[in-house]
Structure formats: structure tokens, C-alpha cells
């Protein structure tokens, strides 16, 4: 069961209360939650979540259901972005869904960039961001995928969906009234 409450479909999702607090270097599967996925030196540990593992599959399904988007869309993005590798890094992009640290922070994440290498933490914030793309795309999976890749702030603004996508908060912070 998810630890966060399910929000209506008109909202990109709840802002999780805190980032994963498990120390890096250990992996524990506890009550369906992956607490850490890599060793301190960046190598994948012997008990780490493997790409395409049952635990990873379960997490992708859980967050797709939680944010009310197709599981196929979550898997498509994870495959393209990291080939299902939770520890993938490419410049400013982190983890399974290759989310930027600043984007995750815009979705409510409060941890360090390296915290996004935790499979569940990455999915929690990246799938929330993907949900916004899904809303802007009006349920079109191909369009949502492209919006996730390039960003969709101006598309959401034009469609009047900044609040629903979770991007409205940033607009108010930049332009206080």
C-alpha cells in the first residue's frame, strides 16, 4: 500500500513529505519500499535493485497507479531514459527516469541529487512530473512522452494547467503578488 494519500485525477499528485532517509550503502526491501539501491562508492551492491527486477516492476506499477497514468507510459520512459537502471547518471539527469534535481525539487523533493538514485524516490517525483505531462497531453501517451523529454511548463501555462500539474507553485514563487 502506498504511504501517501491518492489525490484526485485533476492534480499531479501529493507532494511527498520527505525524501528517503535510509543511508546509502545498504539495500532493504521493507514493506514494499526500496530504501537504497547502491553502494557508497556508486557500484551496485549485491542486494541492490537490479534493472528489470520484480521489486522495480512492482514500484513502477505502484506509482503508475498512484498517479493514475498508464503503467506502459512509466515503463516506456524508464526504458528510454535508463534502460531500467536505477543508478544511471547522465550529466544533470539522475536515476531510473533521468529526472533533473531541480525538476524533482519543483515536484516537492527536498533531498540531495544523489538521493534520486534511490529507485522509489526517483519514481515518486519523476512519475509525478510525468503525470503533469500526461494531463497536458490530454491522455495521449506519445505526446506525454515527448513533453516529459523536453519539458512542458509553457504548454501547461498555455492550457491553464499549471496548478494541476504541480508547476503553478513555482510560478507564484517567482512572481509573488
Description:
The protein is mainly alpha-helical and 177 residues long. The protein has one domain: Lysozyme (Orthogonal Bundle), CATH 1.10.530. Helix content is 43%, strand content 6%. It has 8 helices and 5 strands. The chain has helices at 54-66, 71-82, 101-106, 119-136, 141-150, 153-158, 162-165, 168-174; strands spanning 29-30, 33-34, 89-90, 93-94, 99-100. It has a 3-stranded antiparallel beta sheet with strand order 3-4-5. A hairpin with a 2-residue loop joins strand 3 (89-90) and strand 4. The longest helix is centred in the C-terminal third of the chain and has 18 residues, at 119-136. The protein is globular. 40% of the residues are buried. Residues 1-11, 13-48 and 170-177 have low confidence and may be disordered.
Provide the descriptors you would attach to this structure in a database record:
disordered C terminus; 8 helices; 3-stranded antiparallel β-sheet; disordered N terminus; Lysozyme; 43% helix; mainly alpha; 177 residues
Q: Which SSEs are present, and which pair or pack?
A:
Layout: E1 29-30, E2 33-34, H1 54-66, H2 71-82, E3 89-90, E4 93-94, E5 99-100, H3 101-106, H4 119-136, H5 141-150, H6 153-158, H7 162-165, H8 168-174
Antiparallel strand pairs: 1-2, 3-4, 4-5
Report the β-strand fraction as a percent range. Answer: 5-15%
Counting DSSP H or I runs of 4 or more residues, the number of helices is 8
Q: What's the quaternary structure here?
A: single chain
Q: What is the CATH topology classification name?
A: Lysozyme
Largest beta sheet: strand ordering: 3-4-5
